[in-house]
Amino acid sequence: MKRISILGSTGSIGTSALEIIRMHPGRFRPVALAGARNIDLLLAQINEFKPEIAVVYGQAEASELEKRLPGNSLTKILWGDEGYETAASYPSAELVLLAIVGAAGLKPALAAIKAGKRIALANKETLVMAGELVMKLADENGVEIFPVDSEHSAVFQSMSGQRQEDLAKIILTASGGPFRAKPINEFSSIKPEDALKHPNWSMGSKITIDSATLMNKGLEVIEACRLFGLPPEKIEVVVHPQSIIHSMAVYRDGSVISQMGVPDMKAAIAYAFSYPERMDIGLPAPDFSSIGSLTFEKPDIKRFPCLALAYEALYTGGTMPAVLNAANEVAVSLFLEGRIGFTGIPGLVEKTMKLHSPVKFPQLDDIFQADSWARRIAGEQHTD
Ligand code: NAD
Ligand code: MG
C-alpha cells in the first residue's frame, strides 16, 4: 500500500488522482488531503478516503470543516502555510502529489524536498519561480521529482533508456488553445467564458487561460529547462492541435522519440504514481484511423506574445521568471474578473517585466520578494 499526500486534492489534477486511487483500491492510501476553500468537496473526500490529516486555506474554513465532520471522524484538520507544509512533509507519506495552483505551491514543494519525499509535480509554477534552487535542493536531499505535466512526462518517457549526451533537443507540443485560428483583430473581444473553453483538455481555470494565451507553454519551456537541465535553445515548441503526441525528444542521429496518448491527465498522474509500472486506468489508446491526421504548425508569437515573454524571462534568468509568473497570475485573475481584456494579459506581464531589475543569482528570499514586488507592480500598472 503506497501512502500518498495530495496537495490540491479538490482541483482538476487532485480529483483525477483520487479517481485513479479509487480504481485501484488497496494499492494507494491518501494519508493527507489538502484543498483550499471548497469545503463541500473536501468534506466528501474526507468521508470517502478517511485521511489522517486534511488542510484548508484559513482558520475560518478549518472551523467550518470541523463543524461539518462526522463526530467519529479521526481526521485532524489543519490550515494555512503550516498545514500545507505539514501535508507536504507528512511522515508516513511515501509520495507527495503537488497539485496546488500557482505560486502557493512553492513553499509546500520546498517542505516536501527538505523532508526527502518523492514528489509527483503538477505545480509547474514552482519550477518557473525557483527551478534552479529547487532542483539543487532536491539533488542535495536525494529527492526525485517526477513530472505530472503531460509534456514533461512525455519527454521523460521519450528520454528513458537514452544517453543524455545524444539528445539534440526536445519539442514540446501545444494544442494552440481555443484561439489558434482566430484573427488578431478579434482578440480584444475575447470574453473569459470563451477562453475557458479548451478544445482538448479539461483543467482548472488558471491553466485554461494560460493555455489560451500560450503562457502555459512558456511556463512549460522554463519548467522543462529546469527539470531536464537543458539550455533554452534546446527546447522548441510546436503547435499540434490534436494533442495526441504529448511531446518529443530528438537525438543527434535525427531520430525522434515521442509519447502519445489520448489527452487525459490521468495517464501522466498514474505513471508518476506507479513508475516504472504502468497501470490500467481505463484509458484507450488513440484510434489513429478515426483521428486521420496529426498536424503541426509554428506558434504565432504575434498573436500569442506570452510565449515570447516566457523565453525572454528564461534568457534573462535570475528573478525574472518569478516576476513573469507573478505578473501573469495577477493578469489572469484580472481577466477572469472582467477587469482587463485578453490582450491585457501579455500587456501587463510585459510592463511588469520591463520595470524589474532582476537579481542575477537569487536566493529563495529574493524569489519571494520578486514575487510580491511583481504582484504589487502589476496591480498598480493596471487601471480599471
Ligand atoms: P485547479 O484550480 O483545478 O485546482 C487547484 C487546487 O489548488 C485546488 O485543490 C485548490 O483548492 C488548491 N489551491 C488553490 N489556491 C490555493 C492556495 N493559495 N493554497 C493552497 N491550495 C490552493 O488547478 P489544476 O488545473 O488542478 O492545476 C493544478 C496545478 O497543476 C497547476 O499548477 C497547473 O499548472 C498544473 N497542471 C494542471 C494540469 C491540468 O490538466 N489541470 C495539467 C498540467 C499541469
Ligand atoms: Mg502541460
3D architecture notes:
This protein has 384 residues and is α/β, with parallel strands linked by helices. It folds into three domains: 2-147, NAD(P)-binding Rossmann-like Domain (Rossmann fold); 153-265 and 292-307, no CATH class; 317-384, RNA polymerase sigma factor, region 2, helix turn helix motif (Rna Polymerase Sigma Factor, Chain: A, Orthogonal Bundle), CATH 1.10.1740.10. It has 16 helices and eleven strands. The protein has helices at residues 12-23, 39-49, 59-68, 80-88, 106-114, 124-140, 150-159, 192-195, 205-213, 215-228, 266-274, 288-291, 305-316, 320-336, 344-354, 364-381; strands spanning 2-7, 28-34, 53-56, 76-79, 95-98, 118-121, 145-147, 167-174, 235-239, 245-251, 256-260. The strands form two sheets. It has a seven-stranded parallel beta sheet with strand order 4-3-2-1-5-6-7, with helices on both faces. Strand 1, helix 1 (12-23) and strand 2 (28-34) form a beta-alpha-beta unit. Helix 6 runs parallel beside helix 10 (215-228), helix 10 packs parallel to helix 13 and helix 14 (320-336) packs antiparallel against helix 15. The termini are far apart. The model has no long low-confidence stretch (mean pLDDT 97). Residues 149-151, 220 line the site of magnesium ion (MG).
